[in-house]
Design brief:
Layout lengths: L2 H31 L1 H4 L37 H37 L1 H15 L3 H12 L3 H28 L2 H8 L4 H37 L11 H8 L8 H28 L1 H4 L1
Amino acid sequence: MSEPTQSRRVHQSSLIRVWLGGIVIGLFFLIAVFAPWIAPHDPLKQDLFSGLMAPFWLDNHDPAFLLGTDSLGRDVLSRLIYGTQVALIVAFIAASLAALLGTVLGLLAGYYGGWLDTVVSRLVEIWMAFPPVLLSIVLVAVIGTGLHSVVIAIVIIDWTRFCRVVRAETLVQREQEYISSAVSIGFERWTILWREILPNVLPLLVTLLTLEMGIAVIVEAILSFVGLSVSSDQATWGGLIQEGRQYVHSAWWVMSLPMICIIIAVLAFNALGDGLRAILDPVMRR
């Protein structure tokens, strides 16, 4: 197979991943935005006489509850829809803030070096020595439950992921000839850092950001599962899993359906990130 043909196939494959990931994430976004109009029932409304009703593809189902009900008679479909709001809010806000903090520190440490690089590198090493999930649970337990606490915990934990990668790439870019040319014609350091190096780091940063969004969805689900995310009466995917595990043998759908939502969301974020990296990176386009 010739190199141009192989390159075109790689590009086409990347476009497919971008489209598939983007469409799925876009659907989740629309579901989250229009949840009050899409959800067939109030996600908090209880009906103990309708508890653990089967979804539409099983016998003895109720057409009013397409995906069945949980132990308190709450509509599973409506709770999944409203759970999408929490998952995407955490994914976009927490991942973006972690990326911002980690990128700034990584760029400064990689370009300026010296004592700043030493301090940031040692801080990253210390931070990454702690198990991330355990540290997130401890942080939320100390800060207090709530959506803001989940976002803060994810930012505090995962900024190191961006900082380490951006710092390493900045060190590579700093030695390139275009940086020497920019210095020779009198560009200031800040100008070189933000206008020359940052654009070359962006393809890698986009990939990390989308991957981090998927990780944020998982972390929020874990915290909801152990009761350290939003209030217990608010619908979350992790909360649904925690509720459904008690009835996994008699009502498996209560636990399985939110797990499927998490898997689809994470795979969509990963596909989008991989596709964008291949399309945006000039080296991979050749």
